[in-house]
Write a structure and sequence with these properties.
single chain; alpha/beta; Rossmann fold; eleven-stranded mixed beta sheet; three-stranded antiparallel beta sheet; 20 helices; 14 strands; globular; binds adenosine-5'-diphosphate; binds magnesium ion; ATP binding; ATP-binding protein; P-loop_NTPase; T4SS_component; plasmid
C-alpha cells in the first residue's frame, strides 16, 4: 500500500526530510544531518534577509554548558569575517574571544579593576547623520538613561522607585547641560545627585547616589567613572571587549561591568555608514539579570536593525530569562519578545527540565524537541524562520586550538598553586612550567588512544587573564563570578554525564568511564573504549577529574 501525503503533512511528520540547506552564499558551518539530506550547510544571516527568508538578522544560540555554542559562534564569526563582515564582541566575560580576534587581525579592549583602561558608558558614539539635531539629542539621552537604569538596580539591590527615576532624570539632564569635561560621565551624574540644591531631589536620589558611588569612589572606581581612554577602531575587522579581569568580582558586579561595556560598544557600532557587523553577546544571560537590563537590551535590539547589525545572543537555557518578572508580566513579555524577534535560533542540547520551556519559547515542534534532547556536542537544531535544519558544526584543527575554552575554565577554584610565591596573595601561580607529558602511543583501530605513562598529573597553568585583580574581592556575602561559573559548569557536566551515558546506553560504565563520557567529546564511542586515565586524541581529555568524582 502506498501512502500519499501533501508536502505540508509530510514535512510535519518528517520535519527535516525536505531540507537541502540554504544555498551556497555565506560561511560554511558544517554538514547537515542525514535526516536533512547530509549536504553542506552554508549560512549568512544577511543573505537570508536579502532573500526574505527572515525579516531580521538577530540570532539566539542556546545550549547547555560545553555543548559547543561558543566554539560554533567563533567559527561563524571568523568565517563571516573572512567574507568581509566585521565582528564586535560586546560581552566576553571569560576572555575567550581574545584569541579568535587576534587570529583575525582584530583588536582587544581589556577592562579590569585598577586596569589601565577606562570606558565611559555614557559616550554618545558616532552621530547618525540621518537624524535631526533634536532626534539625535533625544536618542542619546534615552540610551544614557537606559544604561543608568540598567545598572542601578544591581548596585542598590532593588528596583528603582518612581521618585528615584525622576531624580535620576533631572540629574542626568543637568549633567549633560554642564559636563565637567568634554562629555558627560557617571561622576557628573553622581555629583548632580549629591550636590543638588534641591533638598527633595537630593533626598529622593540618595540611594541611587549611594549605588553609583560604588563606581565613582568604591570598588569599581576608575573603570567607568571618567572619560574613555580607549577608542573604538571602526575599521578593525574584529573587536573584543574583554572583561575577564572582573572574574574575581562578585557576580552582580560583573553583570554591571558587562552592561557598561556593552552599552559603550553598542553606541560605538551604531554607525549607519559602517556596513555589516555581527555583534556577539557571549554568556548573554549575565546582562539580562533583571527587568531593566532586559529593557535596555530589547531597546538596543530594536535599534540595531537600522544599522546593519546582526545581534547574536548566546545563553545556556531559555529559563535564564525566567528569572526576570512573573509569568504573564510585561517583563516576561519583553524577554519573550527578545526571543521571538530572533528568527534565527540555534538550539544545542538542552537539559530535560528546561525542554518544555524551550519548546514553548522558541515554538519548536515535538519532533524537534526529540532531536534537541539528545544532540551531541557541536550538533544543533538551526531553526531559520520556520525551517529546521540539523547541523553538525565542523572545526578545523587550527580553529579548535584557537577556540578552546576548556583549559581555561575547567579548573577554576580547584587550583592548587604549586610552589606559590609567598608574596603572592592571589592564590594563582605565576607561569608554572608545563612538563612535557610522556605518552605511550598505541593505535587501536579507528582512533588513536594514548595512555600516559605513570600518573603524572598535567600541571594546570593558571590563565593569566583570569587572575583576580588585587583589591578586587567579592564581599563575604557575595558569590564571585568565577565561583558562579564553576557552579554552572559543574552542573552542566553532571547532566552531560547522564545524557551521554543514556545516549550510549553503557549500563556497564564505571565511574571513570562515565567521566570520560562527560568530557564533551563529540565522539562518545571513543571514550567508551577508553580505559580510565587514557587519552582521547579527539578532545584531549586524558584523565578523570578527581574533583568531579567527589562532587
Ligand atoms: N564542533 C565541535 N567540534 C569539536 N570540538 C568541539 C566542537 N564544539 C566544541 N568543541 C569542544 O568543546 C569545548 C567547549 O565548547 P564551548 O563552545 O566552549 O562550549 P559552550 O560555549 O557551549 O559552553 C571547546 O573548547 C572544544 O574543545
Ligand atoms: Mg561558551
Amino acid at each position: 500500500m502506498t501512502h500519499r501525503a501533501t508536502a505540508l503533512t509530510a514535512s510535519t511528520a518528517y520535519p527535516f526530510l525536505n531540507e537541502v540547506g540554504l544555498g551556497h552564499r555565506g560561511a560554511w558551518m558544517g554538514k547537515l544531518g542525514s535526516l536533512s539530506g547530509g549536504g553542506d550547510f552554508v549560512f549568512d544571516p544577511y543573505e537570508l534577509y536579502r532573500q526574505k527568508l527572515v525579516t531580521g538578522t538577530s540570532m539566539v544560540w542556546i545550549g547547555t554548558v560545553g555543548t559547543g555554542k561558543s566554539a560554533g559562534a567563533k567559527a561563524f564569526a571568523c568565517r563571516m569575517c573572512t567574507l568581509g563582515v566585521k565582528v564586535a564582541v560586546a560581552s566576553d566575560p571569560k576572555g575567550e574571544w581574545v584569541a579568535p580576534a587576534l587570529a583575525m587581525g582584530g583588536t582587544v579592549i581589556s577592562l579590569a579593576p585598577s586596569g589601565a583602561n577606562r570606558l565611559n558608558p555614557l559616550d554618545e558614539g558616532p552621530r547618525d547623520s540621518r537624524l535631526s539635531d533634536d532626534e539625535w539629542v533625544a536618542l542619546v539621552l534615552s540610551r544614557r538613561r537606559l544604561t543608568l537604569t540598567a545598572i542601578i538596580p544591581s548596585l542598590i539591590h532593588r528596583d528603582i522607585s518612581p521618585r528615584e527615576h525622576t531624580a535620576l532624570d533631572v540629574a542626568l539632564v543637568a549633567a549633560i547641560a554642564a559636563p565637567a569635561g568634554e562629555t558627560v560621565t557617571i561622576t557628573d551624574v553622581y555629583k548632580q545627585l549629591t550636590d543638588t540644591k534641591d533638598d527633595q531631589a537630593r533626598e529622593d536620589g540618595a540611594d541611587i547616589a549611594h549605588g553609583l558611588r560604588r563606581l565613582v569612589h568604591g570598588d569599581l572606581s576608575g573603570v567607568f567613572d571618567g572619560e574613555s581612554t580607549v577608542k573604538f577602531d571602526a575599521d578593525s575587522p574584529f573587536v573584543v571587549m574583554d572583561t575577564s579581569g572582573f572574574m574575581g568580582a562578585s557576580a552582580t558586579l560583573l553583570s554591571v561591568a558587562t552592561t557598561c561595556v556593552a552599552a559603550w560598544l553598542e553606541a560605538a557600532v551604531m554607525d549607519p555608514a559602517a556596513g555589516k557587523r555581527i555583534v556577539i553577546y557571549d554568556e548573554g544571560w549575565r546582562m539580562l539579570r533583571d527587568e531593566q537590563m532586559l529593557l535596555r537590551m530589547s531597546e538596543q535590539w530594536k535599534l540595531a536593525r537600522q544599522y546593519g547589525l546582526c545581534n547574536l545572543l548566546i545563553m545556556h537555557r531559555i529559563t535564564d530569562l525566567d528569572m526576570v518578572g512573573n509569568a504573564g508580566s510585561a517583563t516576561r513579555a519583553l524577554a519573550q519578545g527578545l526571543l521571538t524577534d530572533a528568527e534565527i535560533r540555534i538550539v544545542y542540547r538542552q537539559e530535560e527540565d528546561v525542554l518544555p520551556a524551550t519548546k514553548e519559547a522558541l515554538g519548536l515542534t515535538d519532533a524537534e524537541v526529540r532531536e534537541v534532547r539528545s544532540l551531541a556536542q557541536g550538533v544543533g537544531l538551526w531553526k531559520i524562520g520556520k525551517r529546521p535544519f540539523i547541523v553538525r558544526n565542523y572545526l578545523t584543527e587550527d580553529e579548535l586550538e584557537t577556540f578552546k575554552t576548556s583549559d581555561r575554565f575547567e579548573e577554576i577554584g580547584s587550583v592548587t598553586p604549586a610552589a606559590a610565591d609567598p608574596t603572592d596573595t592571589t592564590g594563582w601561580t605565576a607561569d608554572p612550567v608545563e612538563e612535557e607529558p610522556n605518552w605511550d602511543i598505541e593505535a587501536t583501530g579507528r582512533h588513536r588512544i594514548e595512555t600516559p605513562t605513570a600518573a603524572a598529573p598535567r600541571p594546570f597553568v593558571a590563565p593569566p587573564l583570569l587572575k583576580p585583580a588585587t583589591g578586587w574581592e567579592a564581599a563575604a556575602d557575595e558569590v564571585s563570578a568565577a565561583e558562579e561559573y564553576r557552579e554552572i559548569e559543574l552542573t552542566g557536566r553532571r547532566s552531560e554525564i547522564i545524557a551521554a551515558a543514556n545516549r550510549a546506553k553503557h549500563a556497564d560504565l564505571t565511574d571513570d568511564s562515565f567521566l570520560q563520557l562527560a568530557t564533551n567529546c563529540i565522539s562518545p564511542e571513543i571514550h567508551s573504549q577508553t580505559t580510565s586515565g587514557a587519552f582521547c586524541t579527539q578532545c584531549g581529555v586524558f584523565r578523570p577529574d578527581e574533583a568531579l568524582i567527589a562532587s
